Amino acid sequence: MVWYGLGDEDYDRKYSDKVLIQRVLPYFNPFKKKLLLVIGCLFCSALLGSLVPFIGDLILNGKDNQTLLIVFLVGLFLLTGLTYILNYVQWSNSSKIIGDLILNLQKDAHKAVLNQDMAFFDKYPVGKLLSRINSDTTSFADMANILMESSSSLLVVIIIFIPMFIFNWKLALIVLASFPLVLITALSFRKAARKRSLQGQQALSNVNAFVNESMSGIQVMKTFRQEKKMYEQFNEVNAQSFRVNLRRALLLNFIFPTLTLIQGIVIAAVAYFGGILSSQNLYLFIQSIWLLFFPLFSISAFWPQFQSGLSAAERLFSLIDAEREVHQTQENICVIQEGAIDIDNLTFGYKENSNIFDTFCLNVKPGESLAIVGHTGAGKSSLAKILGRYYEFQEGTITMDGVDIRDFDLECLRSQIGFIPQTPFLWADTLENNVKYGKLDATKEEVMDALELAGGSDWVEDLPHGLETDVGERGKVLSMGQRQLVAFARILLKDPRIFILDEATASVDPFTETRIQEALEQTLQGRTSIIIAHRLWTVRKVNRIIVLENGKIVEEGNHEELMRQGGKYADLYNTYFKHQSLEYIEEIGKIKTMVE
Amino acid sequence: MTFQGKELEIPPDYYEKGVEFGLEEDPFLRVRKKGSSRWIIKHLFHKSNKFLVIFWLIFMITSTIAFSQLVVMLGDAVDYVITNFGNIFDPSIYKGLIRYVLLILAWGIIRPVLGMVGNFSRELLAQRMERDGRHEFYLNLLGKSQNFHDQQQVGEIMARTADDVRMLNYMVSPALALIGEAIASLVIPIVTIALKYPPQLAIIPTAFLIFLIFYVQKYFKRLGPVTRDLRTNFGEMNSVLNQTLSGIEVVKGLTLEEHETKKYLSKTRAYRDALIRQGIIEAKYLPILMMSLIVVIGLGHGILINLGYIPTSHSLEIGGIIGYVSLLVSLRRPTFISLWTFQVMRYAKSASERLLEMMNEEAEKLDTSRGKSLEIKGKVTFENVSFIYPKSKNAVLKNLNFEVLPGQTVAIVGTTGSGKTTCTKLVSRLYDVTTGEILIDGRSLQEYTLESLRSQISYIEQDVFLYATTIFENISFGRVSSMDEVVKAAKDAQAYDFIMKYPNEFQTKIGEGEDSVQLSGGERQRIAIARAFISNPKILILDDSTSAIDSATEDKIQHAMQKVAEGRTTFIITHRLSQIRWADKILVFKRGEIIAQGTHKELLKTSEEYRKIFLKRFDVPLEVLIKEDA
Ligand SMILES: Nc1ncnc2c1ncn2[C@@H]1O[C@H](COP(=O)(O)OP(=O)(O)OP(=O)(O)O)[C@@H](O)[C@H]1O
Ligand SMILES: Nc1ncnc2c1ncn2[C@@H]1O[C@H](COP(=O)(O)OP(=O)(O)OP(=O)(O)O)[C@@H](O)[C@H]1O
Ligand SMILES: [Mg+2]
């Protein structure tokens, strides 16, 4: 059974509170004014709230003077109106701040993740990343809310404390003595609380990752009738999330009672010493203690959320700060004119100690079409991905038109290369938009033309809404071959200098494939193209074929030459037609004559 | 399998209820139709949860009582100190003081302890709500038809299972708990006022209370659309992001990063806007104004009584007014609490509505009421089968008629999108036919339970899906198997060699993950082939399963396949002649119709279409053959 680890990801790091706060603060920068406004409002309304008893006192003392009484009552009236307005200003502004804060964080996280290279996505499941970008940002924003509330609460504490000191400094000192206790309690929970919160978030992202996987593979689950297995695994993940979050909640539930305990002790102490010191203002004092503990409580009541916020920030910044492997040394905006590719002494491996390529050399001349064939797992797709800078290679140089591909601006480089990966990817969008992803400002006609070029567009009319049909997530409403055609059309629309086709038509029937082939011949004229294929007949017409085996070129030449050589390629080619027993060939011959 | 600590057996015939998977008895089946509030309440009081509710209530009330005891003691102590001013050190008086202090201390300790016990049961309840809600939702998803899943976006489902369900948790803790507290701290002061002061003083706070109740209802309603938008937008955000990340390779290849960020931001912006709208509704929360007003009015009222303008039974001194006003002021906190707890409640309601909406959605269900568990021999008959995908208007399959005898191999060929895959999906009842009938061993598919049907059919899908787990687990996915069996299947599928290259061999993890390896396209297909081989099916369906495999390897797989196919009915969809040739029957598809069927030889002679593909397009380069022939 799979164990759903709660461990940190590789890119996770621990930030000290100081660093974390330094990172967090800039996010508040754009809202400085609003923030001050909010805190000011919070503070004022708290202050006004504590003014009410005083004014009440004044009113009571002056109740015999009727005009004064009315003045005070009206004043009080206005005061309450003011409180409401303050509350309105504070609340509406803080929701604006929080909304924008979330937005900015999500923007940064989103950009950071999209900038990662493929190795990163191989490592971290989408579900978990999703959880970070979407859910952690919201818990972070909750923290912002708390921050505002607590800072105003702190101000209130100070304000309350001043009169206490004036009335009776000895008792005030006793109360003050309890502060370190409160502080220590809060702080001692900090580490554990942060850890548990982090685990809680990790557990949730495990749920996310699990749901993502099991729902993406729902059809496999159904055909193999493995609902029960999935259900069991789900229960495990869910139970884990339950356990972890329960533990977190229980731990955090100690904080509040502990603080009330301290409060009880302080009050008892004040009662005692107040008695001994025969304080005149004992009543007022005790009132003040209630008032004093209120903001302290609200700070600590939000402590759990504050900790979740901090750990969410930690997770977010880890994501934003994650190192990339693919590094561009310069940002040359360079239009690739010729399309010459030079691979020199390339060494590459996805993991240490297991190189796919070792001192690999390859030269592609401008405008040449090159086919790569070979056993599965030979490294064909890997080569294509290296050229598109999806993965960083360890040694050697690769140049295009004489410029090191590490010196290109990445976006510029990729916009010159048309890469069709082995599995087509479609968005849950209309067919038209899916093709347009190759060229965002394309017209409908261009889209139709591209589809026509990519094996004919008659199938589009059979769809319920033609070009407007929503193709479903990953294009699941289309047949596999149709998805490949769409991916193909997209690249044709993009019209790049260099084509890299990784089994782009593997699931397309031969009839359609021939049509594509014919169209392609014209399109590829004068452009460099690298074609990876298993169906060998599709590559017969290319300029040069290389046979790749375990990351090495074992044979090279055009179809005729290689067939003449009688080596690996000829072998592959012959196996390909192995079914041609004599009897079969005869048959074909017969039919040939029959047809003619 | 266990659920809530109890052993849970799923009987083989529970599919009778029109779902493909589910519990024998679903306790929430009926209540789901009755709306989110009923559903939430049912969950709150489900099984042992109700004891937690009671437990929590008891402890919450007792701890509130302990608190009021503390306050009373404190008041008494202060009075005691004031009356005994100056001679506090008199031993008997000092003893009295100590007694008070100890009592205060005692209540000060008892209160948090009681509170803590209450909190624990509340937390347990909250977490259970989340767990059980998620359990129910996920289970429900598992039982939904393929049709339903075709229309969903995974990101959206994720948002619901992870985040919407969590709202149920927040609803209990802290929202419900705070509402309990708020009610207590609204009612207790008012009762105290009525008892301690001239009863008419209770009129104003009572009026406030009534106003609050009405207002909260309205407020709750007003928040409805906004919170719903928020949850919906969140789902969309998730869905957009999920797609971007799943297709990251293409996003990068087409340099669409900026475009994708823009797309995502348009969703998050909508989310933010809803958040601000929510903030403004909250900011206008009227009870806050009313609350302050009643303090003023109450003060005036008190003074009028004090001055004798309003006659009462008991007189009201200045101290009384102070006490009265402080009680009014203490209503402030519960008023503030109501402001945001009801917002959380509303979230929970909107989230539950979203959950229920999906759970209650009845996509075209498979009729499984007649199912029996039967052994399959392998004869498959299509009688006038036509099929239209729901939500699409054109028939994808039209009037299919053919018969396959047990143990035969059928090859399906045809152009892209001609309905080959769809045709095979109908056999394992991923979808039900629109008209016509499919028979296995002369019986309609409906007569089999899904369990018996699907467990005897193996299917290698066109777009291979592997789980992010070990190779062993992936191959043995369809059937619990021993290592030997897995090794054999891997060898047959030509996967053994490359698997053994990894240090962890069959325990190598694949897919996304820190210690996993990624497989090449051909390697993935071979794992899928092994997965299908191992389950020893009566009917084997191979959908273009060697498209990413080189011909040499394919050749080897084919030998294994021939072995595996022995004695089973096999459907192969392929474009490779080498595989088609050994088929007993070939079906040629064109735009959803079978335009020709027969053996290879027959078709070569009789079918113009087949020959056309064959001679001109098919894997065989004719000139070469003819050259060699000559
Ligand atoms: N992202 C990756 N991380 C780690 N290893 C990988 C990754 N992608 C591929 N590999 C491994 O590298 C080897 C070469 O893979 P590649 O995809 O280049 O093969 P290929 O020649 O394209 O094969 P096929 O014809 O099956 O697509 C395989 O053994 C594969 O397991
Ligand atoms: N889930 C679906 N909902 C609606 N239409 C669908 C769905 N799946 C497939 N189709 C449509 O049904 C038709 C037949 O698809 P099918 O996958 O059966 O084709 P195929 O013959 O297997 O093609 P290929 O050789 O490309 O795999 C296509 O036009 C496709 O767009
Ligand atoms: Mg298909």
Explain what this protein looks like in three dimensions.
The complex is a heterodimer of chains A (596) and B (630). Chain A has 21 helices and ten strands. Chain A is an alpha/beta fold and 596 residues long. The model of chain A is unreliable at 579-586 (pLDDT under 50). Chain B is an alpha/beta fold. Chain B is 60% helix and 11% strand. Chain B has helices at 36-44, 49-83, 91-143, 146-150, 154-196, 203-246, 248-253, 257-283, 287-306, 318-329, 332-360, 420-427, 450-455, 471-475, 483-492, 496-500, 521-534, 551-565, 577-580, 600-606, 608-617, 622-629, and strands spanning 2-3, 6-7, 380-388, 395-404, 409-414, 435-440, 443-444, 457-460, 509-510, 516-517, 539-543, 569-573, 585-590, 593-598. In chain B, strand 13 and strand 14 form a beta hairpin. At the A-B interface, helix 2, helix 3, helix 4, helix 5 and helix 6 of A face strand 1, helix 2, helix 3, helix 4 and helix 5 of B. Bound molecules: adenosine-5'-triphosphate (2 copies) and magnesium ion.
Q: What's the SSE blueprint?
A:
The complex is a heterodimer of chains A (596) and B (630).
Chain A: H1 17-28, H2 32-61, H3 66-114, H4 118-123, H5 126-167, H6 169-216, H7 218-223, H8 227-252, H9 255-276, H10 282-301, H11 303-321, E1 341-351, E2 354-364, E3 369-374, H12 380-387, E4 395-400, E5 403-404, H13 410-416, E6 417-420, H14 431-436, H15 444-453, H16 458-462, H17 480-494, E7 498-502, H18 510-523, E8 528-532, E9 544-549, E10 552-557, H19 559-565, H20 568-576, H21 582-595
Parallel strand pairs in A: 3-8, 3-9, 6-7, 7-8
Antiparallel strand pairs in A: 1-2, 1-4, 4-5, 9-10
Helix pairs in contact in A: 1-11, 2-3, 2-5, 3-5, 3-11, 5-6, 5-10, 5-11, 6-8, 6-9, 6-10, 6-11, 9-10, 15-17, 19-20
Chain B: E1 2-3, E2 6-7, H1 36-44, H2 49-83, H3 91-143, H4 146-150, H5 154-196, H6 203-246, H7 248-253, H8 257-283, H9 287-306, H10 318-329, H11 332-360, E3 380-388, E4 395-404, E5 409-414, H12 420-427, E6 435-440, E7 443-444, H13 450-455, E8 457-460, H14 471-475, H15 483-492, H16 496-500, E9 509-510, E10 516-517, H17 521-534, E11 539-543, H18 551-565, E12 569-573, H19 577-580, E13 585-590, E14 593-598, H20 600-606, H21 608-617, H22 622-629
Parallel strand pairs in B: 5-12, 5-13, 8-11, 9-10, 11-12
Antiparallel strand pairs in B: 1-2, 3-4, 3-6, 6-7, 13-14
Helix pairs in contact in B: 1-11, 2-3, 3-5, 5-6, 5-11, 6-8, 6-9, 6-11, 9-10, 15-17, 20-21
Bound molecules: adenosine-5'-triphosphate (ATP) (2 copies) and magnesium ion.
